[in-house]
Amino acid sequence: MKLPKFLLADNSDFPEDLFVVHTEYPRYILNVEEEEVEWLDDLQGDDEETMADEATKVVEAGFKWCDEELAKYDEEEDAE
């Protein structure tokens, strides 16, 4: 099965939170409201600074994707 790179998720146990799930390496779950990240993969590399930069980039990409996705929902609601 082919999965999208990012998925939106919510959970009734956390009604105020919205989550982004990143399905490619390094996999993570981002709590958008709390701005917290739970890594599902161990980050591997020789240089800690490079790995930290890459982790920052992939999390920023998750926030950007979420903003764009929510804007699409807003556009759909406005069109109705």
Task: Report on this structure.
By secondary structure, this protein is α+β, with helices and mostly antiparallel strands. Helices cover 40% and strands 20% of the residues. A 4-stranded antiparallel beta sheet has the order 1-2-3-4, with helices on one face. A hairpin with a 4-residue loop joins strand 3 (28-31) and strand 4. The longest helix is centred in the last third of the chain and has 32 residues, at 48-79. The relative contact order is 0.16.
Question: TL;DR of this structure?
Answer:
By secondary structure, this protein is of the alpha+beta class.
Taking pLDDT < 50 over at least 5 consecutive residues as the criterion, the unreliable ranges are none
As a percent range, the share of helical residues equals 40-55%
Helical run tally: 1
* Main β-sheet description: 4 strands, antiparallel
The computed structural class is alpha+beta
The Rg value, from CA coordinates, equals 14 Å
User: Termini distance?
Assistant: 33 Å
